[in-house]
Amino acid sequence: MLEIKNLHASVADVEDSEILKGIDLNVKPGEVHAIMGPNGSGKSTLANVLMGRPDYEVTDGDVLFEGESIIEMAPDQRAHLGMFLAFQYPAEIPGVRPWQFLKAALDAKAEARGEQKMSVRNFSKLFDEKVEAVGINPQLVKRSLNDGFSGGEKKRNEMLQLEVLQPALAVLDETDSGLDVDALRIVAEGVNSMRSPERSFIVVTHYQRLLNYITPDVVHILVKGKIVKTGGPDLALEVEKEGYREYLEAAGVSN
Amino acid sequence: MTTQKTISRETDLSGQEYQWGFVTDVETELAPKGLNEDIVRLISEKKGEPEWLLEWRLKAFKHWESLNESEGEPGWAMIDYPGIDFQDIYYYAAPKGAEEAPKSLDDVDPEMLETFEKLGIPLQERAKLAGVAVDAVFDSVSVATTMEDKLAELGIIFCSFNEAVKKHPELVKKYLGSVVPHTDNFYAALNSAVFSDGSFAYIPPGVKCPIELMTYFRINTEGSGQFERTLIVADKGAYVSYLEGCTAPFRKSHQLHAAVVELVALDDSEIKYSTIQNWFPGTKEGEGGVYNFVTKRGRADKNAKISWTQVETGSAITWKYPSVILRGDNSVGEFFSVALANNHQQADTGTKMIHIGKNTKSTIVSKGISAGQGNNTYRGQVQIMPGAENATNHTQCDSLLVGDKCGAHTVPYIEVRNPTARLEHEASTSKVSDDQLFYLMARGLSEEEAHHMIITGWSRDVIKELPFEFAVEAAQLLKVSLEGAVG
Predict the structure, then answer these.
(1) Hey, is B22 helix, strand or coil?
(2) Domains of chain A, CATH where assigned
(3) Domain spans in chain B, listed from the N-terminal domain onward
(4) What is the DSSP letter of B223?
C-alpha cells in the first residue's frame, strides 16, 4: 500500500532545517501502524509530508503509494489516489458548508478517476447517514466548515470526512498532547469502524492513550527524524511506562 | 421554482478569461465625437424628445461645462488614471435603423438577438428566461423589452427610458432628477446632459411585481461612452426586485460608462436592486477596460425599504456608491457588496446612508477582494441628521488579500448629529491562508477550486442576498475573474 524509502525532508526554503532524516516504512493493506515519539521528533512533519504539504521539501528518498511515486504530486492528486490526512488542527473556512465542501471533494475525486459523479440525491442520503453515524450535531454541518467548532466537533467533522471519502490510506495526525478523552474516543471510533482488509491507517500520536482504543498492528518509535525501534502493540505500553528517555539517549539527545 | 434556469447557462465560464469580449458586427450610426450643445440637441432630436426634456438636458450640460472648466473630474477617490478626454468620445452610438423603437422582436436585427443570446439573455419568445422580464440595452439604445404586455395587466410599467418619456411623460417629469439632481456631481451632470437610454419601471400602489425585472447593458462600439439612465418608482405599498447585468467587448482603449440610477420608494414600499457588474476589466497588463463612474441613489419614504446588492467584478475603474436617503420614519436601507480588483483593476466603492427620519435603520456589508496588483477601497458615509431619533446603523467591512502586490483600504465617514443614534462599525482584513488551501487540497480540490471555495465562502453573506440565478452567476464570475491570480 505505502512504501517509504529513506525519506529525508526539510522545511521548504530554509537551509539546514532537515527534520526527517531517512525514514523507511512499509504499510500493507489492512494494517494499522502507530508512530510514536517525543515532542520534536518529526511525527507531525511525517504526516504532513505524506500528504504533500508545501511547507516541506523532500530532499532525498521516495514515497510509493500502490507502487507509484507520489513525492512530485500535489496534495489533491494524492487525495484522488485514495490518501487522506486527518488534521490535528483543521482549518476554519467561513461561509463554506461541510455539505458543499464534501460534495466538491467527492466530485473532484470522481472526475480525476474518470468515475461517475454521485448524484445530489444520493450524496445527500450518504451525508445524512454518515452525520448520524459519526454523531455530529446536524445543526453544525449547516454552518461554516470548522468555524467556531469545539475541539471535539472538529474531530467529529474529520471523521465524517473520512467516512464519506472512504480513502484507501488514512494518516491521522493526533500529536497534540492536549487531546481530551472524548476526542480520543471519537477518533478511535472512526478508525475502528473503518478498519478493513483493504484499508490502512497510520496513526501519529504522542501518548499511548489513543492506542488504548485502537489496537495497532505495528508500532514505530520516531526520534530525531529516524525510526529507532519497531515492534508490536506491546511496544506502545512499554513506552507509556518507561518514556522516551532510552531512545533519546541512544540518539544522543539529553531529555 | 420557475427561475431555475440560470442566466449564464449559455456561457461556458471555464477556460477563457473574459469571454464576453466579442464584438457584434452591426452598422452603427454615430454622432461626431466630442461634446457640445449641438450634440446634446442632436441626441434629444434623435430620440424625438419633448421640449422640456431638451431644456433639462441643456441645463445639465451648462452645469457640467462649468464644472469641467472650474474643477474638472472629482479627484478624491483612491484611483489613478490619466484623465479622460471628453472630446474624444462618441456620445451617441446606435445600431442603424434603431431610432424607431422596434414594434416587435421581428423588427430587431438578428445580429442583435444573437448577441444577447450569446450573452445568455435570449429575447425571443420561445427561449425567454422564465420569471424574468428583460430590457436589453445595446450601446445607446434599448433593443427589446420582454414581457411588457404581461406586466401591463398588473399596471406595471417596464420599458426603455425613451419609451417612458413618450408614453408616461407625467411620471418621468415628476421623478427624473428628483433623487439625483443634475447638480449632484460631475458625472451625474454629464449623464443628465447626454444620457442615451436605460430602463424605466413603475409599480402601482399595493402591487407586488411577481417576476424579476432585468436590464442587460452591453457596450459595443469602440470609443463610445455609455450613459444610461434608470428610474424605478415603487408606489405606496409596492414591491419590486430589479436586476442589472453588464458586459463589454475586449478593447485596448478605455470606454467610459457614466450611469445614473434613481430609486423612488414611496411609503410602505420595497425595492430590491441587484447588480452584477462585469464590464471589461482591461488586460492583465492593464490596457483598456471600462471606466465606470456611476451615481446610484434611492429615496426611502415612510416604512419603505431599499436594498442594494452588488457584485462588482469588472471595469478597470469602479467609482460607485449606491446610497439611500432614509427620509421617511422607520425606513430601512441596506447595502451588500462584493467588489473584486484583480490585475490592474481599481475599485473605489461603498455607500452613503443618510438618516433623516425617526427609527431609520441601515445595514452595510462590504466585502473587498484584492488580487494581483488590484487596489480596493471601501468608502462609506453614515450620516445621522438631528431629527433622526433612534437611528441605527451596522457596518461591516471586510477585506481579503490574495497575493502580496495588492492593496485594501477602508475609508468610513461617520457623522452623528443625534445622541440617540446607535452605530456599530466592524472591519477586518484577512488573507487566504496556506492552512486553508492545504486543507481543501488534501481533500481533493485543485488549488484553483480551493481558492474559489474560500473566496465565495467569504463572500457568502453578500451573495446570498442575490436572487437565485444571479447568485449562481456571481459565484462563477468570481471564479473566472480570479483566474491567473492564484498559484
Answers:
(1) coil
(2) 2-92+167-250 (3.40.50.300)
(3) 28-481
(4) T
